[in-house]
Every structure is written in C-alpha cells, then in structure tokens.
Amino acid sequence: MGILLTIAHRLAILAYIVFALFPLYWLLKVSVTPNDLLYSEGVRMWPSHATLEHYRYVIENSAFPIFFRNSLIVAGSTALAVTLISSLSGYALSRFVFRGKYAVVALMLITQMFPLVMLVAPIFKMLSPLGLTNSLTGLIIVYTAFNVPFATFLMQSFFDGIPRDLEDAAMIDGASRFTAFRQIILPLTLPGIAATLGFVFTAAWSELLFALMLISGNDSATFPVGLLTFVSKFSVDFGQMMAAGVMALVPACLFFLLIQRYLVQGLTAGAVKG
Amino acid sequence: MASIEMRDIVKIYGDHPVLHGVDLSIEDGEFIVLVGPSGCGKSTLLRMIAGLESISSGTMSIDGREVNDLKPRDRDIAMVFQSYALYPHMTVADNMSYSLRLRRSPKEKIAAAVAAASAKLGLDPFLARRPKALSGGQRQRVAMGRAIVRQPKAFLFDEPLSNLDARLREQMRAEIKRMHAEFGATSVYVTHDQIEAMTLASRIVAMNAGAVQQIGAPLELYDRPANLFVAGFIGSPGMNMLEGTMEPESGTSAVRLVNGTTISLGQAVNLPKGTSVTLGIRPEHVAIRPAADGVAASVELIEPTGLGIILHLTVHGLPFKIFSSDRALLAPGSDLTVGFPTERLHLFGPDGQRIALGTLDASGSTS
Ligand SMILES: Nc1ncnc2c1ncn2[C@@H]1O[C@H](COP(=O)(O)OP(=O)(O)OP(=O)(O)O)[C@@H](O)[C@H]1O
Ligand SMILES: [Mg+2]
Question: What is the distance in A from the centroid of ligand 1 to the CA of B6?
C-alpha cells in the first residue's frame, strides 16, 4: 500500500515536471532544427538531423549580442538597486515604529494593484522630457520603481524571521544599529537577499511591455524586444528566434545556479526556527 | 562595577502605561532580583537599564551619571537573554569576542579574555563550533561567557536559566552565585523561579502591574511581606489567606473567619471591631496539633514532594494548605486538628497592606 502510494506520488511529480519543462524542450528542439526540416518532417520529438546553424547566424548576423548586453545591464542593475533599497526599507518596516508607517505600506500595496498598461503613457510622458526614453537608465529606473514594493515586503518577511534579541545583543555588545544590521542581521538574511536578487533579475530580464514602449531602435533594445525582430511582416524565423531564446535562458540559469544554495535555505528558512 | 539609580521611571507604549514610576537604587556590587507575575514589566525595566527601550519619563543614572539618552553601546553593560541570542553565523569564540573586537581591543588581550572565560565555563572543546551544534546548556554557557569577557560595569539577566532542565538550572545557579562572589559585579536578574530569587539575591524587588511592591532582603520579603501581593507571590506553596473580621477579646485580638471560626492573634491589635482583614500563614508554619487544642480540618488531597508532603485541607469549608516534612500517615478523608502559632501569623488590613504584629515585626533579626 505504502509503496503504491509512493509510486503514485513520484509519478505525479514526474508528470508535473514533464508538463512544466516540455515548452523548454520544444524551444531547444526547434532551435536545432534546420529550416528545411521544420515544416516538412511533421511533428517529431527530434529532427532527423540537428544543426547549430541558427545559433551561428543569430550571433554573427543579428543585433542579438547587443540585446543580450543591454538586458544584462538592465536586469543586473535593477536587481542590485532593488535589493539594496528593499533590504533597507524592509528592515525599517520590520523593526521600527514610525509615523505614517501604515500609510506607506498601503501606498506600496496600491501601486501593485494597477494594471501596468494603464501606466505606460504617463510614464512615457514623464521620462521623455528627461531624456530617459530610449535609454537603459530609464528602463532601470522604471523597473526599480515597480519592483521595490514587492521586494520590500519580501525582505520584510525575512527580517521578521530574525529574532530582535540578536540586534539587541549586538548593540549591547557595542555595535551601533547600523553595525548590528551589517554584521549580524545581513549575513543571516543572505537567503532572503538571494531570493530577492533572483526574483527581480528574472522579472527585469523578461519584461516586455515597458521595454517595447520606452525603447525604439536596436541600440537600447533589451532581449525580449529583440526577439520580436525575428518576426517579420511575412514570416517568423522560428529557428533563429528559438536559438536566441535558448541563449537568453543561459544567464538566468547561471544566476539561479549561483544563488540556489541560499535560495533553498531561504524558502525553508521560515519552517524551523534557526 | 557601578551603582544604578532609577528615579520615578515611567514607560508608556502608545497610550498604554506599563511602568508607573519605579524608584530603585542599586548599590555597587549588589545582586538585585526582579520578580513578579508575567507582564508586570520586569523585562521592560531591564531593557531600559540596558538602553534598549526608551524612558518615557524619570531618570536613570549609572555611577551617578544620567544615561537616559545614552545608546546601549555607551553604557558598558552586559546582558544575558532568555533566548541566549547567540550570533548563529559566528563560532563560539567569535561570539564571545565580538564585543572586544568592536572595541578594537588588542588581539592578545582578546585571546586571553576568551581563554579565561572559556576555561571558567568549560567551553574549551566548543570554541570552534557554531551555536547550532551546541546543546541548550552549552549555549547558555556561551551566553554567559559573552557577558563576562567584557568585564562590564553591570550584568543584566533576563530569565537566563528558564530554558534549562532542573538539574542544569541548579548547577548554573550555583555557578552564577560563585561568579558574583568572585567578581562582585553589580547584577540585575529577572526570574520566575522562587528558589533562584531567594538564593541569589542581595535584595529582591517584587513588582506587580508596573509598580514596585516591596524591596528587601529575601528573608525580609518572606518573613514580613509588605502587602497581600508579596505575601502571596513569595514562597511556594503559597501562603494561606483567610478572610475575616476583627474580633476584640479580652486583652488580645482575634480574627473571626467567614465560617465563624475565631483565630487568636495573641496580642492586642488596634483595629475597630468588624474591620475586614486578611490573615495569612505559610503552609510550612501551620501546626498539626493534638485534637483538643486547635481547629478541626479534614484532608482532601496529599501531594508528596519527596522533601515532605503538601496537605490540601478544608477548615470548615475553606481550602487550606499545609507543608510538613513529617510524612505522617494521613489518608485523604481523615480528620485532624490544626493550630495557628501566633508568632507566625501575618495580618493585612482592608487596603491589603501589612499590619505589624509584634512577634515577627519587632524582632526583625531574621534577615
Ligand atoms: N513593544 C511593546 N508595545 C506595547 N506593549 C508592550 C511592548 N513590549 C511590552 N509591552 C507590554 O508591556 C508589559 C510588560 O512587558 P514585559 O515584557 O516587561 O513583562 P515581563 O514582566 O518581562 O513579563 P514576563 O515575565 O512574561 O517576561 C506587557 O503588558 C506587555 O504587553
Ligand atoms: Mg520578560
């Protein structure tokens, strides 16, 4: 009985994984399928002969390397800025009582309720006289603004999980509040910081709406916008698009590989008192 | 080493007053124990001494210098938390040396201080470990070690032993007493444990609902509780409280209990007849008497404690406890006669305050 249950359990998990990963597999499969086989072979799990031609073409002949660099700059800067700001604001929300605290929290929640599409036009209007449209800096500012509220709540919950006695002990030991924050609290929040970094990085990496609206031209386009250049008026070059897509996954995967050690800790940190 | 002086200390959270004007002078080298029911403000007071909690009004001075606005790190006070609050990402040695490192003490001095403290507390085998690889008792020792390496002006303890098992608690209690005898450091110690309070304190401060009820040597609180609260709080099992009214008799006064029994006070007490009073007597002071000479009672329940027995009785319908080290062969349901030695009686007036009875109050030499 127990064994059957375990097997059923495993099968369910397996089914879920297959279901979740299948689109990724298809991405990979199409990216190595030569153009002439794409439509002629019907639906097959793997093309009769594979090629890296699409990858070579994307790297050598498209603006893809620029998109890639732009995305890296935007997503990296946004992740850093948001994490820095939200760890400070999350700490304040977790530890201090101050006037207007609940108003601030309410405002931050409200910003999360608006459909972003509504905000595109006003933001464009504000950024354009500042010369921040068509610029990576503008994108970084917008992404940071939109990610800070959620990241703040995320960081706050991590700080809430760290006993106050620890800072109290550090301050009695002779630390200032900031030193206690830096030397005692921050090291213990590394899982939370990693989770926030990862979350914001992927959000900024794959953001399309603002990137599309605020940027025109290839020089400042980020990678999701760049993907659309493979769609021409008359056809979609699926092979090249998928090859670009596979390459776009690489930094996100590397990033998560780097932080996953902290992340796993972080996701279970609340479960048992450290 | 330092003296600590509190004058009219008030703490208000929002509009919720927690401490209502605490006055307390702690002399250099004293060991003060704060006791009181949960939520009465002991931790709050302790944290105000440490500088972790702001002072709403009143003044706090350490060594004659007002410290109301001084940051915790400038007060040079060490604290041991109930949760121990060890830094999880640091080794035992780093935990203990953190305060000295923040102060940029010379390396050799830090090493020497940590070595001395760890030898004293038997922590040598654990210096390279992280707190999570230690047992509760070992963690407690690290927390103590972290406090003593600094040689601070004063030590604060917030229920430091309450997470340990009984045996370990006993051991650490003696350890703390020994360290205090050795260093003579001014200490303020919060506990719920009667025995810790009685054995460690130079003076006990009994608190209730944010106000100090009585300050005095442990035996003074035990022998002459200032009011009903202290009488009921100090001592275990708790004092028997019998409500009644004053009943003057020829020459000596007596108290008539609600059930009609009269108990003689053995002396004249200057209170008008009919004044409602409370008569107190500790379970260990009630005498079990031969039948003719006392008040009839019946045994409800017997709790053996090893050291003796706690008898739960009813005296004419009133619940009553006796502690006796004599394991007399009594069974539940049996009847006996109890006596109330006049020199052991406590009398409290209608306002709950102690009314001096010559016997205990005049001698005054018990502490
Ligand atoms: N930050 C706070 N905000 C509001 N009220 C508080 C705060 N901290 C403590 N209190 C209140 O102050 C009172 C005293 O708390 P305190 O922790 O000093 O009690 P205590 O005597 O140490 O109790 P215990 O023996 O349970 O530790 C309690 O009623 C508590 O609810
Ligand atoms: Mg407390």
Answer: 19
Kindly tell me the sign of the dihedral angle through the C-alpha atoms of A143, A137, A80, A218. positive
Instruction: Copy the structure tokens of residue B276.
Output: 């409602």
Ligand 1 center–CA B158 separation, angstroms: 13
Q: How does strand B57-62 pair with strand B65-66?
A: antiparallel
Pair A255, A263: CB distance under 8 Å: no
Please give the Cα distance from B159 to A138 (Å, whole number). 55
Number of domains in chain B: 2
Kindly provide the ipTM of the predicted complex, given to two decimals. Answer: 0.86
- Domain extent at residue B306: 240-363
Architecture of domain A62-263: Orthogonal Bundle (1.10)
Q: Whose CA is nearest to atom 19 of ligand 1?
A: B39
Q: pLDDT tens digits for A147-171? A: 999 999 999 998 998 999 999 999 9
Report in angstroms the alpha-carbon separations of A106 from A93, A102, B252, B349.
Answer: 12, 6, 72, 55
Q: Are A187 and A201 in contact (CB under 8 A)?
A: no
Residue-wise pLDDT tens digits, A96-133: 989 999 999 999 998 888 888 888 888 889 988 998 88
Mutate to test the interface with A, among B102, B151, B153 (most CBs of A within 10 A): B102
| Tokens encoding A28 | 């990979």
Best residue of A95, A98, A162, A172 to probe chain B, by most B CBs closer than 10 Å: A172
Q: What is the CATH classification number for the domain harbouring B349?
A: 2.40.50.140
Q: In the structure encoding, which two tokens stand for residue B98, read together?
A: 């953190």
B183-208 residue pLDDT tens: 899 999 999 988 999 999 999 999 99
Give the residue, by CA position, lying nearest to ligand 1 atom 26: B38
**CB pair distance less than 8 Å for B73 and A166:** no
